[in-house]
Amino acid sequence: MADQDINHHTFPNGLTLIAERMEHVRSAALNLLVPGGCAFDPPQHRGLASVFSELIMRGAGPRDSRALANAMDNLGLDRDQSVGSINIRFWGSTLARNLPAALELYADIVRRPHLPEDELPAVQALALQDLQSLEDEPKHKVMVELRRRHFPDPLGQDHLGTADGIQGLTPQIIRQHYERFFHPDGTILAVAGNIDWPSLLEQVDRLFGDWQGTADTRLTLQPKPPGYEHISKETTQTQIALAYPSVPIGHPEYYAAHGAISVLSGGMSARLFTEVREKRGLCYSVWASYQTFKECAAVLCYAGTTNERAQETLDVTLAELRRLQEGVEVEEVDCLRARLKSALIMQQESTSARAGALASDWYFLGRVRSVDEIQSAVNALTPDAIVEHVRHYPPRDLTIVTLGPKPLKPPA
Asked: 3-state DSSP call for residue 71?
């Protein structure tokens, strides 16, 4: 695979620009990471980052909320913003010729937002609706509770926040959040598509070069003890969620950790689907995934089943997780290699995916992994390497959360 055309530049103010030229496409995408995610929400104002991320899009620079939305629509800008634990992410994709105009708009958003006080009540109402909808989505709720109980506080906090936290927000609190976090040092702007690097560099320097300040991103992490929690709710189904520690991105066993997840839950031929769902008919949904922070990572598992078969589902799922230590078949590794390579190739066709990968790599690793590097690591995966990893990091120190009418018996 040919070398990628990637450039990066860190400005004197600390802003990092990363760009990949993709000559075969006509589009371009940007991904802007700004510190200020939900982990920084004060305990009494959980939900602050989410409310802020909505309000910051309601007018910036010379445009009010309607004019800003119209300007983005006129560019054909497919866009969104989201709140992670550490960063607020702004994303936009459009025709490559419209990228300079889109960057002008985002420069106004992050540097000259209106944060209109009169629109705060409406944004709070929307946030409260999102929070309330969690009660109607037990699968989502059990995973929110799992992350909150497993990851060190405040990394496990969910962006939806709390009703009291949202209702207690004021325009002053919103403005203080902006003034604390929206600074260039630590901000990452990633661009992918049919772009010209010198022109892009000049424009970003003009738009952001005189921006000043450093965000206060200090966090004191409070580890959570493992254990079992049950959320009592009269439902016809039981939701089961569990987590255990894994290795974070950048660790020598990172790719082996991904390989293990793929063997467990990489498709309809993966172990959890075939052993728990297909052969035994225990549940309608079962999967495993991986989540990483800089400091820690975890394997997360979910199963949704009937109340009558909930205990058996938990027991069999745990047994499958542990059985991974006994061996992995060559055919399973061949399948996971094919899946991972397919995902990698598809990512190369999407400017949005590439911009997201550039920003993520720089945030986590301080560099961008090449496609060849990732492909070589995937090719190097073997059954022995995956088994060795899962023996180093077996399913122990478990956090288990269930939601349903009756608690289950956790493993000893």
From this structure: helix
Phi and psi of 203, rounded to 5°? -70, -45
Query: Cβ distance 111 to 42 under 8 Å?
Result: no
Residue 409 lies in a domain: no
Check whether residue 204 and residue 233 sit in a common domain: no
**What's this model's pTM, rounded to 2 decimal places?**
0.94
Quote the longest CA-to-CA distance of the chain: 64
Work out whether strand 16-21 and strand 78-83 pair parallel, antiparallel, or are unpaired. Answer: unpaired
Closest CA to 333 of 275, 254, 255: 255
Six token digits for residue 180: 């604390």
358 touches 364 (CB < 8 A): no
Residue 344 pLDDT: 82
Q: Which residues pair with 63 in a beta bridge?
A: 60
Domain boundary at 154, 175, 208, which? Answer: 208
What total number of domains does the chain contain? 2
226 half-sphere exposure, CB direction, 13 A CA radius: 14
Q: What is the DSSP letter of 302?
A: E
Reported as a pLDDT band with limits 50, 70 and 90, residue 295 is very high
Going by the DSSP 8-state scheme, the letter that residue 409 receives in this structure is: -
Rounded to the nearest 5°, which phi and psi values hold at 351? -65, -35
Structure tokens given for 388: 């060795």
Q: Are residues 317 and 257 in the same domain?
A: yes
On whether both 274 and 186 belong to a single domain, the answer is: no
Calpha distance 29→8 (Å, rounded): 16
CA atoms of 243 and 251, how far apart (whole Å) = 19
Task: Indicate if 200 and 240 belong to the same structural domain.
Answer: no
